[in-house]
Structures are given as C-alpha cells and as structure tokens.
C-alpha cells in the first residue's frame, strides 16, 4: 500500500487523468439521459464536447493550472452562448478554482475567485429556476457557496505551504548559522591553543638553549656549573611537558578534566617564578609591583603572564649578550598596567612593525591578540637610548 501511495504521489497527473475519465463518463451518461427532455436546452454533441474539454482541464490542472483556468473560463462562456445548461462536468470548474488558489500565480487565483463568485449569478440569469426574483437570488447565492469554499480551501493550502516553507528555510538558515558559529569557535580555539603552544615552547626552549650553551662552555672548566645548568634544563623541560599536557588535554574529552589532571592556568602571582627562572638562566631581571595587588579576572591574569613571558623570551633571543631587563606591574583602580623593558640591541624592525608582517613576529601578534581579547591596548617598539619596550594596559572590564 505504501508503494502505491508513493507511486501516486510521484505521478499526480495520472491520478488527475483517472478522475478526468470518471468525470467524463458520468457526464456522458448525464448528457445522454437528459438530452431528450422537453425542457432541456442544447444538443448532445455540444454537451459531450464541453464535458470532454472540462475533463481535460481536470487531467492537466496541476501541470498547467493557469492555462487550464483560461480554458475553463472559455468553456464556461461557450456553455452560456450555446445554451448548454449546467452539467456534471461543471464540477471541473470547482476543481480548477481550488487548484489555482493553491498552486497557481496570484493573478490566476484572483481570476478564479472572481469567476467563481460570478458563476452562480450568470447561471441563474441564463437559466432561471424560479419564477420569483427572490427565489432566483437565493438559488444564485446557494450556487456561489461551493465556488467560494473551493477558493478558500485552495488559498488556505497555499498559506500553509508557504508557512511550512518559511519554517524549513528558517531551520536551514539556523543550521547554517550554527555550523558557521561552530567553525568560528573551532578556529578561535585553535588560535588560542596555538598562542599557548607558542608561548610555552618559545619560552622554555629558549631557557633550555641558553642553559645548554652555557653547560657546553663550562663543562670542562666548571663541572659544577655545568651540572647546575643541566638541572635547570631538566626542570624547564619537565615544566614544558606539564604545560603541553595541559594544552593537549583541551583536545580530549572532559573525563580527565574532571579527574583533575590539568594544572591551573598561569596567573600574575607566578610571574615572580617566571622572573626567577629567567635569572637562573642568566638574564638579570628587575621585577617590581606597584599598587595594591588583588585578585583579577582569570583572562587578565593569564594575559599578563603570557605577555611578560613572551617579552622576556624575546629579550633572550634578540637582546644580545650582557642584556638586562625590567618588569613593572602596576595595579590601577580600573586595570592592570605592564611594562617590560630591556637594554639590549633590540629586535629587528620587521618583527615589531605591524605585528610581524614578515611572518616571523608571531609572539608579538599573539600578544596583540591576547590583549585585544580582554579589551586592552598594547604598544611594542624600540626604547629611546637602545633596547626594546613592551607596554600594555589591561582593563578589568572589557570595553564595549
């Protein structure tokens, strides 16, 4: 049964043709039976011809509704001119009015409504069925009702289909928006992880490289210093691995996170440890805190830590020998200020101009992205008198 239903849905013209044949057969019987009546107007040939045309209207109503409407109107006018009284085949006019109201163009729907409302009156004027005027008016109104109902049903179906199509379009648009938002979220998360990886790897690897070079230089002359350097390399490597595990854990399920395997995100308090690590690696750092320390939003604290980490990493990479650095943290009422300076030879011009336009200044690009995410401002460039300076202002509330 389901197969038959699906087949009929795929071939609506076949269904309409079947009903057209049924309608034509009933019309033929009706025309033949009433043709000999004394009060009957018209001829058998005319009645059969009109029945045939109206049956074709039913058969092709869904393939070409507007054309079939015009054919039905022309046939109705011919029926009036040839004096062929109402017959069973006139049911096709109800069908085509319903069809154009449901699926046809707007002009066809309007024509169908006007024609349907006029059909009962025209029929009663041409073939009056009651001697009194009031009786003819009542019959005309009664004959108009089926045409009006046919149009209302068709127009209601059109409205329902339009509503369902709008719902489907809205659902499709929402689905596309969700997919776009998901892609944006994935891209943002990848960028965040990339920044974190860069900061962790660049800082810890630079410390390890400096210590390894120093250990190789004093390996024969000062074994104790070489041993201390190797211990620093080992500790730094372990710290880097711990940070890497935390970052890679973001890509896994939340089960391990619930088990507490992630280490906390770095914050402002850990800047002191970061400075000590740089000092042990051979970079003199003057660290000062101004204002009254207080808890800050986690995003601001992580951003401050990463900026100091990246700035000191750049100092070791580009500052040259005998370079010193200073770090200032200033607590304001509405934000946190950072100032990291060094007295080295400074970074190459292309690394800080426009955030690293040559593709090498990823650290400064990452800084600007981090600061922008919390609504802050960052300035990076050469310091008057030599060296390099990075200053940032991180507001406690994001700017609108």
TrEMBL record:
Coiled-coil stretches noted in the UniProt entry, renumbered to this chain: 157-184
- CDD domains to which the protein is assigned, alphabetical: HATPase_UhpB-NarQ-NarX-like (cd16917)
> Which SUPFAM superfamilies does the record match to this protein?
ATPase domain of HSP90 chaperone/DNA topoisomerase II/histidine kinase (SSF55874)
Query: Where do the TM regions start and end?
Result: 12-32, 44-60, 91-119, 131-153
What's a Pfam family this protein contains?
A: DUF7134
From the Swiss-Prot or TrEMBL record, what is one GO molecular function term?
Answer: kinase activity
Q: Which UniProt keywords apply?
A: ATP-binding, Coiled coil, Kinase, Membrane, Nucleotide-binding, Phosphoprotein, Transferase, Transmembrane, Transmembrane helix, Two-component regulatory system
Its EC number is 2.7.13.3
| InterPro entries for the chain | DUF7134 (IPR055558), HATPase_C_sf (IPR036890), HATPase_dom (IPR003594), His_kinase_dom (IPR005467), Sensor_HK_TwoCompSys (IPR050482), Sig_transdc_His_kin_sub3_dim/P (IPR011712)
Q: What residues does the Histidine kinase domain cover? A: 200-398
Catalytic activity annotation: ATP + protein L-histidine = ADP + protein N-phospho-L-histidine
Protein's name in the database:
histidine kinase
């Amino acid at each position: 049964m389901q197969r038959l239903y699906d087949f009929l849905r795929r071939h609506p013209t076949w269904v309409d043709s079947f009903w057209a044949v049924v309608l034509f057969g009933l019309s033929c019987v009706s025309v033949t039976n009433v043709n000999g009546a004394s009060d009957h107007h018209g001829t058998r040939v005319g009645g059969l011809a009109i029945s045939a045309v109206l049956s074709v209207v039913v058969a092709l109503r869904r393939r070409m509704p507007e054309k079939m409407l015009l054919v039905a109107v022309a046939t109705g006018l011919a029926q009036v001119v040839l004096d062929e009284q109402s017959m069973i085949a006139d049911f096709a006019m109800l069908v085509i009015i319903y069809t154009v109201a449901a699926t046809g163009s707007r002009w066809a729907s309007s024509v169908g409504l006007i024609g349907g409302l006029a059909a009962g009156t025209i029929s009663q004027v041409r073939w009056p069925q009651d001697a009194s005027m009031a009786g003819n008016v009542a019959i005309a109104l009664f004959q108009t009702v089926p045409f009006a109902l046919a149009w209302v049903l068709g127009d209601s179906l059109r409205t329902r289909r339009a509503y369902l199509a709008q719902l489907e379009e809205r659902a499709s648009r929402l689905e596309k928006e969700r997919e776009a938002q998901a892609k944006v979220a994935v891209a943002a998360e990848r960028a965040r992880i990339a920044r974190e990886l860069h900061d962790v790897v660049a800082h810890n690897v630079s410390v390890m490289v400096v210590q390894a070079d120093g250990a190789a230089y004093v390996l024969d002359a000062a074994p104790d210093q070489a041993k201390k350097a190797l211990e620093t390399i080992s500790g730094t490597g372990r710290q880097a691995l711990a940070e890497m595990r935390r970052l890679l854990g973001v890509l896994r399920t939340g089960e391990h996170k619930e088990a507490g395997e992630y280490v906390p995100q770095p914050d402002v308090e850990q800047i002191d440890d970061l400075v000590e690590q740089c000092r042990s690696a051979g970079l003199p750092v003057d660290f000062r805190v101004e204002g009254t320390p207080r808890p800050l939003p986690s995003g601001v604290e992580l951003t401050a830590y990463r900026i100091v980490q990246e700035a000191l990493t750049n100092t070791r990479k580009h500052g040259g020998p005998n370079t010193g650095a200073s770090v200032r943290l200033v607590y304001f009422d509405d934000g946190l200020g950072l100032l990291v300076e060094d007295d080295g030879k400074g970074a190459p011009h292309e690394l800080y101009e426009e955030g690293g336009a040559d593709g090498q200044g990823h650290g400064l690009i990452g800084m600007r992205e981090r600061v922008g995410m919390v609504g802050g401002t960052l300035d990076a460039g050469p310091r008057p008198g030599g060296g390099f300076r990075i200053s940032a202002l991180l507001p406690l509330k994001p700017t609108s």
